[in-house]
Amino acid sequence: MRYEGSIYRPPSEAHSLILQVTIGCSHNKCTFCGSFKDKKFRVRTFDEVKEDIEEAKQYARYIKKVFIADGDALIIPQKRLLPIIQLIKDAFPKLERIGVYGNTKGILKKSVEELKALKELGVGIIYLGVESGDQVTLDKVCKGTILDKTAEAAQRVKDAGIILSVTVLLGLGGVERGAIHAEETGKFLSRIDPDYAGALSVIIVPGTVLAEEEKKGIFKVPDPYMLLEELYIMIKNTNVTHMFFASNHASNYLPVKAWLPEEKDKVLRSIQGVLDQRDPSQLRPEYLRAL
Q1: Can you tell me the distance from the alpha carbon of 6 to that of 201, in angstroms, rounded to the nearest whole number?
Q2: I want to staple 31 with a disulfide (CB 3.0 to 4.6 A). Which of 37, 54, 74, 209 is the partner?
Q3: pTM for the model
Q4: From the centroid of its chain, how far is CA 181?
Q5: What is the pLDDT of residue 71?
Q6: Residue 119: which H helix or E strand, with range?
């Protein structure tokens, strides 16, 4: 397998075969993200992808899950993407699911019918980076989209019958806008009603715009208990049909896993207990935090 640069995948794709179909991210302007700064975006050729699949068949013939990297493979035009998905489906007879990152722009380039066609070939989950439900925060971090468009993209995924998993980022509003960011993000999760939501906590990545803003005092990272307060506010304002919420990513100080709304009150009491006690031993040590 040929991989270019660092490879990223969602935690739930830990046992998946990672197939790099695009290089980098087509947007690549978010101030907090350093994942693809060393890459110029391009779509790999069909022959390149086919060669990797042929190699993978020799060692992982009975793989059950494939994750398509890099940042937003759904940006690929349907007439080029469908043959790649078909190739994956044909190569692995035990395949249960194909996963892919999708940004708002990439998803909206696909109609519901086109997404359904991808689902029929095995695309079972799309990971959408929401980051915040606060438009002011999104604009500050140069996310490059508006919430109405993201909501439309989320609905399109759901209408196609594909699992929707979203990520949000605690601390992205900084100290000054933390509570607003958390509340609006909870409300936005309620609006789009995803199947899964994962909360990460902001970590300053050297070389990013956000790192420069922190150095200049423009952006201030909330302390651990401020981040927990955001987590509490976010969950409190999240009213969904049936969603699994997790903040057990390594960037977070307090691992939380809960089905909402069924376990909402329970998890809020748990977070409040940690906030009340302010015992550092209950938090993940700084040296264990990572992206």
Answers
A1: 20
A2: 209
A3: 0.96
A4: 17
A5: 87
A6: helix 112-120
